[in-house]
């Protein structure tokens, strides 16, 4: 099985380099870690042999024609991991018609339908850049990671009260509970549950 890493024009090269090297160190020889560009995603039969589709950090919205293929892959049980991405959860399709005009610069055509909660999940990418800074993250197990570089905090909105949502980590503030740094929502197809994690790079 293959782990495919997206290499389209939206990808930050520094993130791509780090993601490829990290995944190869973790997964070889059990999985083949291979790059894939947007034309191949749209036209090649990659889904059957793909164990995981990975997006490094993008510096602009993902609006490639392969959005449909990626959505079909996830909705049929495929696994999708996006670094440096946020997400919006909504009961309506935010990218249909003219409603996407209100989403700002991070609007993406990519969306997933969570049948468990009857909501749409819209990954968000890009939307500006700044100098990376050190942030602290608290993991699902309560461990604090103190040296994570983050250029733009990932934002997750609309997930409060949704069932089956696993918060993978939170930013550690000076006091109180921090904002969500990564989630793993259930994307259901028929009788199975598949998760689409998104987290900061």
Briefly, what is this?
GO terms for molecular function: biotin--[biotin carboxyl-carrier protein] ligase activity. The protein has 201 residues and is of the alpha/beta class.
What is the helix/strand order? EHEHEHEEEEEEEEEEEE
N→C terminal distance: 24 Å
* Oligomeric organization of the protein chains: single chain
Number of E strands: 15
Helix tally equals: 3
Principal-axes shape call? globular
> Roughly how much helix do the residues carry, as a percent range?
10-25%
Question: Spans of 5+ residues with little confidence (pLDDT < 50)?
Answer: 97-107, 189-195
Average of pLDDT: 80
Structural class: alpha/beta
Task: Give short descriptive properties of this protein.
single chain, alpha/beta, 201 residues, biotin--[biotin carboxyl-carrier protein] ligase activity, 35% strand, 5-stranded parallel sheet, 15 strands, 15% helix
Report on the structure:
- The protein is an alpha/beta fold.
- 15% of the residues lie in helices and 35% in strands.
- It is built from 3 helices and 15 strands.
- The strands form 4 sheets. It has a 5-stranded parallel beta sheet.
- β1, α1 (13-27) and β2 form a beta-alpha-beta unit.
- The longest helix has 15 residues, at 13-27.
- Mean pLDDT is 80; it is low at 97-107 and 189-195.
